[in-house]
Design brief:
The protein has 10 helices and 9 strands. By secondary structure, it is an alpha/beta fold. It has a 9-stranded mixed β-sheet with strand order 1-9-8-7-6-4-5-3-2, sandwiched between helices.
């Protein structure tokens, strides 16, 4: 694992926000505390020159800031597609984005959202991949409940209400559907963030012969009994300040080494969990860009 440059933010500078506030937001975002508790804890902090509202507003996603590639970009085309998921919820649905002009088939990449459904940031990630020449597909785990509701609080509640095993089966079914897409080459990558990072690790463990390249961003590994099947290639991104996820790395690394798996891992110095998500002050532009360049190069290498 290598250590990279310090993170920074173009929104409310991360250095003005106490680490405790980032940690509390992580608890809130993962359902360990509710919104009221999160806000009451922020109110207990003494932050010179900043109001509680400014800090909470900086931490809670503002998806208006998350569009790097317009949905109207003329170089790509997008649609919503259904797939069969007999071991999951029966059917799944997702956002499919491809280059508009394709002289030949393209490699495919599955994009896996966080723990709140298919939000605008994840859709934008899919569009970025299409701009890079891939066919990207971002399923919505909340499809059985009507899809992402338009806000993260309700999205988290909806995702928690679904059976975890069925959600996992839906993403496995999506991976199989995408790998056999008529416009694809048969090469399949996966990239995921937080919960999606876990799903990326899970697919690398449960579908090692189908996943040609996996890129988990700050995600925990699959269950211990599944890890021995992981052979890679994997490109793993960690945030230095992400104690919850990083606590699982030493044991997972030992398994990957024992497997003689093909993997590379990077920890981004000073970065917070969620540093790639450009809708909050956890976003680190420099680290997000560096990790993304590495991810695209990784996919180009292994999906060619």
């Amino acid at each position: 694992m290598t250590t990279d440059n310090k993170s920074n933010s173009e929104q409310l500078p991360a250095e003005l926000i106490p680490q405790q506030a980032f940690d509390w937001y992580d608890e809130y975002a993962h359902g360990d505390i509710n919104r009221r508790t999160f806000l009451s804890r922020l109110a207990s902090l003494s932050i010179v020159g900043l109001s509680m509202g400014a800090v909470s507003g900086a931490l809670i996603p503002n998806y208006a800031q998350a569009e790097q590639v317009s949905f109207n970009d003329p170089s790509i085309k997008a649609s919503y597609e259904e797939f069969e998921s007999p071991k999951g919820h029966g059917k799944g649905n997702g956002y499919l984005v491809a280059p508009r002009e394709m002289e030949k088939n393209a490699a495919t990449v599955l994009v896996v959202h966080e723990n709140r459904g298919l939000n605008p940031y994840i859709k934008d990630v899919a569009r970025r991949l299409a701009k890079a020449g891939f066919i990207a597909f971002a399923p919505d785990a909340l499809f059985p409940l009507g899809g992402y509701p338009g806000n993260d609080d309700d999205g988290r509640k909806m995702q928690r209400s679904l059976e975890r095993d069925k959600i996992e089966q839906d993403f496995m079914a999506a991976a199989s559907w995408l790998k056999s897409h008529k416009a694809g080459t048969g090469k399949l990558g996966v990239v995921g963030f937080c919960f999606g990072g876990y799903i990326s690790n899970l697919l690398a463990a449960t579908m090692p012969n189908d996943i040609d390249a996996a890129v988990p961003y700050y995600g925990t590994p699959a269950k211990a009994e599944l890890q021995s099947a992981v052979k890679g290639p994997l490109l793993i991104h960690f945030a230095e300040q992400d104690k919850r996820v990083n606590a699982s790395w030493a044991s997972y690394k030992a398994v990957l080494d024992s497997n003689e798996a093909d993997y590379d891992a990077h920890i981004y110095a000073g970065a917070q969990h969620g540093f790639h998500n450009d809708s909050t002050s956890r976003y680190s532009p420099k680290d997000a860009e560096l990790s993304w360049q590495r991810s695209i190069a990784f996919f180009n290498k292994h999906l060619a």
